[in-house]
Each structure stands twice: as structure tokens, then as C-alpha cells.
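call fold(seq) -> C-alpha cells
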Amino acid sequence: MVQILATADNHLDFSAALFGPKRYERKEDFQRCFLAAMEYARKNKPDIVLIGGDLFDTINPRNPPRSLLMKTFRLLHEQGVRVFAISGHHDTPKSLEEGSSPLTVYGESGYVTFCSSYAQPTTVPFASRDGENVSLTAVSYNPFAVSNVDPLGTMKLAPAADINILLFHYPISGFRGYFPNEPVVQLSTIPKSFQLVVAGHLHAYQQLESRGTSLIYPGSTERTAFSEETEQKGFVWLELTKDGLASKPEFIPTPARRLQTIEFPIPETGDLTSLLKSDMETRTDQELVLRLKLKGKVTPELLGTYRRPVLQTFGAANFFHVLLDEDWELQQDKPLDALPRTTPLQELERYFEGQIAEATSERKKELREALETAKDILKEFGAW
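ret:
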């Protein structure tokens, strides 16, 4: 039997730009959740740790998470835990200018086996602690993969060990959560001789059995968007034999930060700022990321009572972060008059005429000369 800890889509050094002064705390959330998985590996000492792509959120992560990962992988290596990794959508270079994946340095350190190729599978044979003959076949994400074409369709997948594992970062048909026009791996592409497939890219934990093969998405270890607010985040512990999984996969949750969306229907009257503050006061939670969706029709009079900076200041004091989603419709008694249609030259002449009218006689001459020069330049570039 081979014991496996599978994780994917950790998105370390997450952008978090929307979180303003809390962005570095938000980055630490992703780090904390990933380290929870690695600490579990240190305590339980699986044969292998599989990282299914998008370990980093960017091709150029900052140095602090890079350094922390090197220490983490070194400790696992010293305990005899083998780490295998591939790159995903976010941490695979898409041009020569971007250089190599940030995972390359860990592969070169000897602490991680980084299977960087996306053109052909990398196969690594090894023995489990029980002496089982195991083979891992891994493929990194291909940034040039064609939409609606099976990215593994032309690859030679020929497992030959007693226990065979396949690792990649693509959607698989039969699973939920991928976008239209993505390259999708078909179940028929995966040889039946693989007992286990671990995949990254889809952020929800999912499992499927097909022709004797167990296919698993560990899901992301932290929530990256409000679309994931109801999903539990974590990683997976697996025990695999040549006959397949020895037991049901164990999903282990991580301490992911809670996200919550609340719909606030727009009232017909009242002070919108006061009403929103009262609603927020009933939900105060310093650890929560709250999204308030303001839905409905709002009149100009009611909109005049809306003070976004006041609500943001109140939210910063009572929540980890508050996002105001103004999904409303402005209600007008009568439609606004359309602005007159003008051309760039007409607008230029209108501006200068206003300036000339207020200028001294000496200044008028300079402005007229400037107007003619500006008109010639505009005409040269195709303005009318």
C-alpha cells in the first residue's frame, strides 16, 4: 500500500489587491491553509505528497513565500516524504519573457520532484515504504492547449508498475466547475491500468469512479472568490493498493477564511446609509469577509443618502473586509436628455472659443494660432 497526501490550487502569494490594507493578512490566509496540509504530512508521514498545480497564484511570487516553501519541503524531505509537483494555469510560464515556473527552484534543490513538461508526460518509478512497485505519471499544464481538445489525447500514457498514479491540471469530463471552451480530459483517454488520478484546477473537492480508476480533485485549500463561499476547503489523504483505494478518501479541512454574501433589498424610503449600518451591526464578525449585494431600484433621492466611505470605514472596524456590490437600478421619473453628438474637432473648437472669449486681445491671437495647429494635428491622425 502507498499512502498519499494530495493537494492542489493553493494559490500562494494570492493577489488580494481588493483587500487594501488587509491584503498581506489575506495572503497569509493562503499560506496558513497550505501549511496546515504540510504539517499534516509531517505528522503522518505519507509515502508521497502530490501537488496538483497552481501552488503559486503568480509566475513571480514574492520571496517570503518562496523561502518558507523551501524550508517546508526540506523538512518533509528529511523525514523521507517524497514530494511531486506540477505547475498549473497560474504558475506555468506563457512566454520566454516570463522564464521558468517558480517551482523550478524546488526541483533543483532535490527536495521536490518537479515534473515540468507539458508536451509529454514525465514518469517516475519508485518504491513505497512497504516495498510496492509504484509509478507516477505527471503532466504540467500546457498554456497553449487548444480549447475543446483533449490535452492528453495525443500523449502516450503507458503505466507499467503494480500501482500507477496520474497527476495533471485540467478539467475532466463528468466533473463540475470548469468553464466552456476549456481543454478537457475525456475519461476514455485515461488507461484503465491507472488506479488513481489526482487533478488540479477545479476548486471544489470532488471524486468519481470510472472503469476501476478513482479520479479525485482535492480542491483548493483556501477560498479564492465568493463563488466558493459555500465550499469546504482542504486536502485529501489516500491509501492506495494495486486493487485501488483501500478505503474511502479522507477529506481534511483547512482553516479557510469564511466568505458570506448577503442580499440587501433597496427600500423605497429612508436613509440608506443608516439602514445598511444597522444591518451590518447584526452580523459583526472580525474574521468574516462580507459582501453586501444592494439589489433593486434606487431613486435619486434615496441615492443621496448613500455614503459609501462611511460604510467602508464602519465595515473595516467590524469585519475583516466588506465589499459593497451595488447591483441596483437607478430609477428616473423621466429619461435623461441625450447629450448632443459632436466630433473631436467640434469639441476642440468649442473649448478654444470659450478660452478666446475670455482672453485679452494679445492672448486671443496666440489662442487662435494654437487652435489652428491643434486642428491640423487632429486631422493628421484622422479626427473629423
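The domain at 2-253 is CATH 3.60.21.10 (Purple Acid Phosphatase; chain A, domain 2).
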